[in-house]
Structures are given as structure tokens and as C-alpha cells.
Design goal:
The structure holds two protein chains of two kinds. Chain A contains no helices and eleven strands. By secondary structure, chain A is an all-beta fold. In chain A, about 0% of the residues lie in helices and about 55% in strands. By secondary structure, chain B is mostly beta strands. Chain B is globular and about 40 Å long. In chain B, strands 2, 4, 5, 9, 10 and 11 form a six-stranded mixed sheet that branches. A five-stranded antiparallel sheet of chain B has the order 1-3-8-7-6, with no helix packed on it. In chain B, about 35% of the residues are buried. The chains are: A mainly beta, B mainly beta. The interface between A and B is medium-sized, with 23 and 20 residues.
């Protein structure tokens, strides 16, 4: 398996522009997580899905952020409009939720820079 | 109550020394405590994990010590090597119920 795939790996955009980050989880996994990592705040959980259904989006910082999971193999995180304070590394992770302790597999991340 | 507090923020250890990173939690319902390792430019990856029914788990040079009564757990890296230089995150969750709650991370530098 190729692991969790994220695209793009790097994104540089100007304030006010729409940004869409993409994630393909590991095949067979039924939980998907979006994280944001910054030096100041560490690794923050933004939202997670179980079986394509959003379970908890309390970590989404503002209404400018939205996430979707239209099917088991694809998810997007959208920021509209983007602001410089959104600059961070965004990680997608997936796992198999089966009532047992299971590993959460992280993608390589998308480094977002908003100018 | 969902927080996991991790210390120190950064750590410098001589090659061959012991690296120790500590974490504390409040939620007594947590029943899964993994440690993740992250190299620059990469996503975090599972290093080792423990359940609260044991006080210690060892995998190679990496050991988790768990103190249920104190609500603390720690990662010990024996014979630390320059290749261990990375950021380490502790985490906790309730299996099958909640996602992982991560500590803020510890940046470890092992110098020769």
C-alpha cells in the first residue's frame, strides 16, 4: 500500500484565495483525521470522520474552514478565504476503527504558506 | 480534561545517553497511550504504545513506563543515537471512542 497520500505537498497562495487540500486514506481504513501543525500550537486535531461521516469538527478554527469526505477513498480540507495565520503544515491520517487499539497512519503533510 | 501535557519541549542528549520524555494526563478513562516519532518533513509515525494494564513496555532501545495512579507515562530511549533526533509526541485516547489527544511534542537532538 502507498500509505496516506496528500496533495499538494506544498502550497503558496495569497491572502483571500481559496485553498483545497486533498487526502487519500489507506484502503480499508474507516476513520480519517485532519490535523494542523504549528510551532506554537503543536499538532491540533481539526476534524475527524468515521465511515465518511464527520464526527467532531470542534477543532475547525473558523467557518472559513470546511472538510468533506464524499467517499471512503477521498477527503478535502478547504480554506476560503485563506489568511496568513493559516500558514501551517496540514496532515491527514487514517486508521481502522474496530474497537481495538490501532495505529493512526499519517500522510506526508501539506505545507501551506499564505502570503 | 482532554489535555495531555508533555515535557520537556526540547532535549539535547549525548550519543549513548538516555533520553527521557514525560507526559501527564487528566482523563482517567484514557486506555491507550502511544508515542509517535516525527522526522523533519515527514508525518508522525507510531513508535511504541502501552495499555494501562501494564506498567512497562519495551521494544528494543525504547521503553514506555506507565504510572496509572500518578496519571503519568514516559518514554525512555536507551543508548540514544544521532538517528533518534526527531520530535516525539505522546498521545492518549479511549479505544473505539475518541481520537488521539496529542501532547505538544519534544524536539530531541542527540549529539555525538
Amino acid at each position: 500500500d502507498a500509505g496516506v497520500i496528500q496533495s499538494p505537498r506544498h502550497e503558496v497562495t495569497e491572502m483571500g484565495q481559496e485553498v483545497t487540500l486533498r487526502c487519500k486514506p489507506i484502503s480499508g481504513h474507516n476513520s480519517l483525521f485532519w490535523y494542523r501543525q504549528t510551532m506554537m500550537r503543536g499538532l491540533e486535531l481539526l476534524i475527524y470522520f468515521n465511515n465518511n461521516v464527520p464526527i467532531d469538527d470542534s477543532g475547525m478554527p473558523e467557518d472559513r474552514f470546511s472538510a468533506k469526505m464524499p467517499n471512503a477513498s477521498f477527503s478535502t480540507l478547504k480554506i476560503q478565504p485563506s489568511e496568513p495565520r493559516d500558514s501551517a503544515v496540514y496532515f491527514c491520517a487514517s486508521s481502522l476503527r474496530n474497537g481495538q487499539p490501532t495505529e493512526q497512519f499519517f500522510g506526508p503533510g501539506t505545507r501551506l504558506t499564505v502570503l | 480534561q482532554q489535555q495531555v501535557k508533555q515535557s520537556p519541549q526540547s532535549l539535547i542528549v549525548q550519543k549513548g545517553g538516555i533520553s527521557i520524555i514525560n507526559c501527564a494526563y487528566e482523563n482517567t478513562a484514557f486506555d491507550y497511550f502511544p508515542w509517535y516519532q516525527q522526522f523533519p518533513g515527514k508525518g508522525p509515525a507510531l513508535l511504541i504504545a502501552i495499555r494501562p494494564d501494564v506498567s512497562e513496555k519495551k521494544e528494543g532501545r525504547f521503553t514506555i513506563s506507565f504510572n496509572k495512579s500518578a496519571k503519568q507515562f514516559s518514554l525512555h530511549i536507551m543508548d540514544s543515537q544521532p538517528g533518534d533526533s526527531a520530535t516525539y509526541f505522546c498521545a492518549a485516547s479511549i479505544i473505539g471512542n475518541t481520537p488521539l489527544v496529542f501532547g505538544k511534542g519534544t524536539r530531541l537532538s542527540v549529539i555525538a
